[in-house]
Amino acid sequence: MNGTRAAADAADLAACRAGVTVSELHRPEEMHEACRVLDRIWRPASGSPLIPPELLRVFAHSGSYVAGVYRGGRMVGFCLGFLAAEGLHSHVAGVDDGLRGRHVGFAVKQHQRAWALARGITTITWTFDPLISRNAYFNLAKLGAEPSEYLPDFYGSMQDEVNAGTETDRLMVRWELTGPRAVASATGTPPPATAGAAGGRTAVGLEAGPDGRPVVGDPRGDTVLVRVPAEAEAMRRDAPSLAREWRRALRDVLGGLMAEGHAVTGFTRDGRYVIERRQENRT
User: Fold this and answer.
1) Strand partners, 82
2) Please, are residues 187 and 10 in contact by the beta-carbon 8 Å criterion?
3) What is the mean pLDDT of residues 11-35?
4) Which of 185, 187, 215, 229 is placed for a possible disulfide with 209 were both Cys, Cβ 3.0 to 4.6 Å?
C-alpha cells in the first residue's frame, strides 16, 4: 500500500471515529455557508466577515484546499489552505465550540494531509497562538508538527472576539507529511515528548508561580522546559493584564531560545514546551 492510499484510509478512519464528513467545497452557496461557520466561530465585528465568500471561491477554483466539515448534514467546521512556496499553508481551521474535544480537528488535518499527498505536496505549514496549551499539544504532540519560527505580534491588531485586545504572537510549524512523526500520527501513535530525552541537564525556563504569574528561570540547560498557563483563553477574558504578562514572558523565553537556534521537540501533557539545544549550540 503506497503512502497516498494509506493517508486516504487514515483520513477516512479519523472522520468515521469523529462522526463527521470532510469534503472539498466548490459551489458558491457552499462558500457562503463556510463564511457563516467562520463568523460563528471567530465572531468578527458586524459587517466585517472573517473571509469573504468570493475569496474562498477563487481559492477553490485555483486549486487550493477549501474544505467543509459536516455532521448530520450540517456544516460545523471549515479549513482553508492555500498553495505556497513550501507546499501548502493552512491559513484557518475551526469547528463549532460544541465539537471541541471530539477529535474533529484531527479528522480535518488527516483529510488535509491526504489531499496534499495526492497532489505531490509533502509539507504543510501553519501558525497558532503559542500561549494556548490545547493547540500546542494538538499540533506538536498529536500531529507531530515541528515549530520553525516564533513570530511576535504577527497579524497586528485583530477585531474578532477571539483575538481582540491581545497581541497576536504566533508559532509557525512545519508538518512533514511523509516524515515518521506524521506517519505515526496518522495511525494514532505519535512519539511522546519526554523531558530530558536527549540527556544532559534539564532546566526550567518558564514556570507558574504560586500566584499564577509567570516566573522566568534558567534557560541554559541541555533540555529546557517552558510552561504556558492551562486556560490562557479564560485568562485573556478574566485577567487581561496577567495574560499580557504571560505573553511577554513566553515571547522572551520561548521566542528567545528559538531565535538562538534551539529546537522545540515537543509539548508535554502538563503544558510545557520541550526545547533541546542543537549539538553545536550546547555549552
Assistant:
1) 89
2) yes
3) 97
4) 215
**Cα torsion 125, 128, 131, 136: sign:** negative
HSE-up of 107 (CA within 13 Å, CB side)? 28
Sequence letter at residue 11: A
pLDDT band at 148 (very low <50, low <70, confident <90, very high): very high
Nine-digit cell at 100?
471541541
Q: Which residues of 114-152 are buried (b: 16+ CB within 10 A; e: fewer)?
A: bbbbeeebbbbbbbbbbbbbebbbbbbbbbbbbbeebbe
Rounded Cα distance between 79 and 96, Å, is 12
Please, what is the average pLDDT of the chain?
90
State pTM to two decimals.
0.91
Amino acid occupying residue 181: R
- CB atoms under 10 Å from CB of 199, counted, come to 9
pLDDT for 195-218, tens place per residue?
555 567 899 999 999 999 999 998
Rounded CA gap, 139 and 148, in Å? 13
Query: d(Cα 140, Cα 118) in Å, to the nearest integer?
Result: 23
Q: How far from the centroid of its chain's Cα atoms is residue 43's Cα?
A: 19
